[in-house]
Amino acid sequence: MKRLRNVMIIMIIALLVFIVIYQMNSSPVEVVREAASHLNEDEETIEPKGTAAELPQMNLEGDLYQWIGKTSNELTEELGEPDRIDVSAYNYEWYVYNDSESQYGQFAILEDEIVSVYAIGDNLEISPIDSGADYIEVADTFPFLNEVTYTDGDSSFTFRLNTEDLQTRPLVKISDSTFIQFYFDTFTETLSSMRISTGDALLLQRPYEIEYQGDLPEQPEFNEEEWREIQEGMEQQVFDISNIMRYKHDLPHLEWDDQVSLVAYDHSKDMYENDYFSHVSLDGDGLRERLEEKQVAYVAAGENIAAQYPDAPAAMEGWLNSESHREALLSDEYSYLGVGVYRFYYTQNFLGKPF
C-alpha cells in the first residue's frame, strides 16, 4: 500500500511539472483594443447569433468577391487603369476607380496581390444580395457573429464585435482567410457599402477588438514626407466617397476647395499635436474664426471631425451613422467641400458660397 501511495505521489508531481512547463512554453492570450471615435446614437439592440466552428455554405456569385488574391495586371485588364493610385498607412497601394458618379471602388495591392476591396454605390456585383439591401435581408443570407476567428500558422486571432459593431459593420468569414465587412446605414437600415479583406489586412487595420495568441503583425512606420502622401490620398478618398453618398440621397455634387481644405488640414493637425478632439481649438477658435483667418467668404458652413478610424472609408461610414455629422454630409446648403487629414484625424469643412 505504501509503495502504491508513493507511485501515485510521483505521478501527480510529474503531471504538475508537465502543466507548468506547458504553460511556460505556450503563448499567452492577449487582447488588443483599437478605439475609434464612434458617436453612439440611441439604437435598437441586435442580439448576436454567437460563434460558429465551421464556415457556412454561401453561394457568392458577385464578381466583387473574386478579386482577393488577383494581381494588378488582372485588375487593370478587367477594369482599365485606375483613376489614381493612393498610398496607404498599411504598405499597400489603393488602386482607385472614381470615374462614375454612382459607383466608387478601392483595390488594395500589396506585393502585386489584391488584399482588400472597398466598394460603394449602385449596382455593385455582390450577388446573392443587392446594393442597398435591407439589414434583415443581409443578416438572413450571411451569419452575423459576435466572434470571428482567423488562424495564421501558429498564431490564432479572434475578432470580437460589440453591439455597435454588429449594427454598423458586422464581419463575416467567407473562407479560411477572407472576410467581408458590411457597412450599414443605421438610419435607413440598409447596406451602405462593403469591404472584402484578407485576414492579414484586417490585422493591420485592427477595426475590432482582437484577442490573439501568437504574434500580431507590426504596423509600419513612416516619416513626415511619407505621411503627407498618405494623408493626401485619404483626403481625396473622403471627398470621393462623400459625393457618392450624396448621390445616393439625390443631392448635388460638391466641388473641391483648396483653401477650405487647408483650413480643415490645420485643424486636424492641431487636434493631433495638442491631443484633443473638438470643433473648438484650445485657443477658443471655432470654424467661424478659422475660416475668417484664411479670408474665406461663405453664406453657410459646417464641419465634421473624426479620429482614430483606420482609413477614410471607415471614417466616412462613421459620419454617415452619426445624426449631426450626417446632417452636414447630406445638407443641400453646401456646394463646396474641403478635407484635411493629419495622421488619423479627419476634418471635413462644408461651404455654401455667396454668388
Automatic annotation (TrEMBL):
Domain annotation CAP-associated: ranges: 68-208
Limits of the SCP domain: 243-348
One Pfam family per UniProt: CAP_assoc_N
SUPFAM superfamilies with a match to the protein in the record: PR-1-like (SSF55797)
InterPro entries cross-referenced by the UniProt entry: CAP_assoc, CAP_dom, CAP_sf
CDD domains (UniProt xref): CAP_bacterial
Coiled coil ranges: none
PANTHER family to which the protein is assigned, alphabetical: SCP DOMAIN-CONTAINING PROTEIN (PTHR31157), SCP-LIKE EXTRACELLULAR PROTEIN (PTHR31157:SF26)
Transmembrane regions: 7-24
Keywords: Membrane, Transmembrane, Transmembrane helix
Protein's recorded name: Cysteine-rich secretory protein family protein
Superkingdom, taxonomy of origin: Bacteria
Source species: Oceanobacillus oncorhynchi
